[in-house]
TrEMBL record:
GO terms for cellular component: membrane. One of its GO terms (molecular function) is GTP binding. It comes from Salvator merianae (Argentine black and white tegu). This is IRG-type G domain-containing protein. Pfam families: IIGP (PF05049). Residues 47-226 form the IRG-type G domain. Belongs to the TRAFAC class dynamin-like GTPase superfamily. IRG family. Gene3D superfamilies: P-loop containing nucleotide triphosphate hydrolases (3.40.50.300). Keywords: GTP-binding, Hydrolase, Nucleotide-binding.
Amino acid sequence: SSLYIGAAIAKAMARQDFGAIKATVAGKSLEQVSEEVQQEMDLLKNARVDIAITGESGAGKSSLVNALQGMSDDDEHPAKTGVIETATKPTPYLYPPFPNFTIWDLPGIGTPDFKADKYRKQVKLDRYDFFIVVAERSTENDTKLIREIKKMKKRFYFVRTKVDLCIEVERDKKKFSEKETLEDIRENCEENLKKAGEPLPTVFLISRKELDKYDFPRLVEQMQKDQDFIKKDILTMFMPVLTKQGLKQKKEAMEKYIWKLAFLSCAIVFTPIPGLSLACDISILVSGMYLIYKVFGLDDESLYITAKRVGKTFEELKSAIQNLGSLVGGANSFVCTHFKLKNFLKDVMKDAENVLAKAADSDLLIVWTSPPQCQ
């Protein structure tokens, strides 16, 4: 019976010390577990994540959009950048494997067409999950914007851009200290955020040209940490990888995804249609492998983007991929699906670390997933 199979799976997991999954299965039939897993998968597939990049005109909003996409400002389809405001309406940038994951480039607040007192209604601030407020310096318009976001009881992340330019300006002074300069910039921004009603302000200092430097990795990690479990998984899967810790987080997210696929594979075994189990298992296996491959940025499109950003050739980065096996071969219910995907994930992790290491001697050490596309 399905109850017996569910118990057998629980025993198998107990031998591997899979506590969390064992708790999910305990006392439930296979049908119950499969239904819950399917609901979670549907939630992951259908949940929306809308990130708004906002701030004053010319502060570097579009450049940050491009950075989060893994694209240069001069790539084929980036968000347009320039010294004047280039976004005339909220512009969405989509991520093809997960079309409900959208980065929005909002028009600059305080321009003639987007006055601060009408900005919330004009750009429909209420529709976004959270905000990245981009500023080259703290201004009154930034303060008004943050107050509006706080009224909506939504999260925001204050990003001070172009800190590399500030460092260069200060570098010629006799008593120059990069650390002290960064502290001065941070403290100035924090004081302005306190005036906007933020009692414990957090400021992220970033350089568009050196995203691995300063606070950009911390910004990505904090955004992931602050989300609920579904949106956290979505951000973890599709945001850029800048460190080995980032790779580890992706691995953990994909391990949970693999368990869900394995349970669905197990449920299909008991569908009384000849040949359906094998066909569905193969489909589950291949789709799972493809997503893992893409999430870690090892597909050709992602490698081309990474190569361009780190100043290496596609062939150099491709040569670091040595562990991936063939996608040929069928799964066989829970055990086979689970262990095939787990082994595949191990190989992907090794290759992702190799690609990260291959880029290590360049100025920018980043592995990106494939970029979103403008709608």
